[in-house]
Amino acid sequence: MAVTVKSAREIDLMREAGKRLEYVHNKMADMIRPGVSTWEIDKYGEKLIREQGCTPNFLNYNGFPASICVSVNEEVVHGIPKKDRILKDGDIVSLDCGLIYKGYHSDAARTHAVGKVSDEVLKLMEVTKQSFFEGIKKATDGAYLFEISNAIDDFVTPYGYGIVEALVGHGIGTRLHEDPQIPNFRQRRKGLKLRAGMTLAIEPMINLGTYEVEWLDDDWTVVTEDGKPSAHYENTILVTTGEPEILTLDRW
C-alpha cells in the first residue's frame, strides 16, 4: 500500500481545491426544494465548478455520466441525475461531488432535507454527520487508520442503524481515489500508522435499516436492500500533529 504524504506546496493546492468545493456545496444547498429535478442540480453544480476554473472529477470517471452524484431517499450513493427525478416534500437528497484544481482533487458529500422531513430521518442525518466528526478525532499523526473506523462504528451502532460495508472512504490527492481504503465499520486490525501530510476522504454512509445494499441495473446507483433511507456525509481532511484540518469545511 503506497499512501502519499503531501508536501507543503501540495497541501496548499489541496486546501484551495477544498475551499472551492465547499463553495460549490454551499451554493447547491440553496437549490434544494420540492419541484427541482436532480438533473438541474447536476447542471448547476457543474457550472459552479467550471466557473472557478476547475474540472468536475466525477464526470466520466469510470464512465459516470454526470458531475454530481444526486442520491434520493433509499439511494445510498452514485445516483445518476435525471430530468424526471423530481424532489418532493419529505425527501432527503445526498449530493456527492468533487473537483480538480491544478491537478489536485477534493471530494465531499452532504445530505439535505427537502421540505419537511420526519423526525426519524432527521435523526439519521444528524447521527451520520456527527459520526464523521467522531471518526476524525482519531485522525492524527501517529494514530492508526482503523481507529477512525472503530470510532464511527462506536458512535453509530447504539442507534441501531446499518453502517454500509460495501463502500468505504479513501485517500485522495493527485487521484480521486488513492490508498488507503477507510471502512466506516469496526476492524480487528490496526491498519497503517497515520502521518502528518496524509489527505483522506472520510465518508460515513448510514442506513435507517439494514446495512445491506444492492446496485441497480444502471450499474451505478447503490440502494438500501430494504428500501429505507440512507444518509451520507463526507469531507476531505488533512492529517496533522494535532487536530485534523477539514479541507472542504471552513468552520466546524
Which helices and strands appear, and what pairs or packs with what?
Layout: H1 8-29, H2 38-51, E1 55-56, E2 69-72, E3 75-77, E4 92-101, E5 104-113, H3 119-136, H4 145-156, E6 162-163, E7 169-171, E8 178-182, E9 199-202, E10 205-207, E11 213-215, E12 222-224, E13 230-232, E14 235-238, E15 245-246
Antiparallel strand pairs: 1-4, 2-4, 3-12, 4-5, 6-10, 7-8, 7-9, 9-14, 10-13, 11-12, 14-15
Helix pairs in contact: 1-2, 3-4
**Major beta-sheet overview:** 5 strands, antiparallel
Strand arrangement across the biggest beta sheet: 8-7-9-14-15
Beta-strand residue fraction: 15-25%
According to DSSP, the number of beta strands is 15
CATH-defined topology? Creatine Amidinohydrolase
Q: Which architecture name does CATH use?
A: Alpha-Beta Complex
Distance between the termini: 31 Å
List the helices and strands in order.
Answer: HHEEEEEHHEEEEEEEEEE
The secondary-structure class comes to alpha+beta
Kindly provide the radius of gyration, computed on alpha-carbon positions and rounded to a whole number of angstroms: 17 Å
- Helix percentage: 25-40%
What's the shape?
globular
Overall mean pLDDT stands at 97
Overall tally of domains: 1
Helical segment count: 4
Could you give me the name of the CATH homologous superfamily?
Answer: Creatinase/methionine aminopeptidase superfamily
Which class in CATH terms?
Alpha Beta
pLDDT < 50 runs, ≥5 residues: none
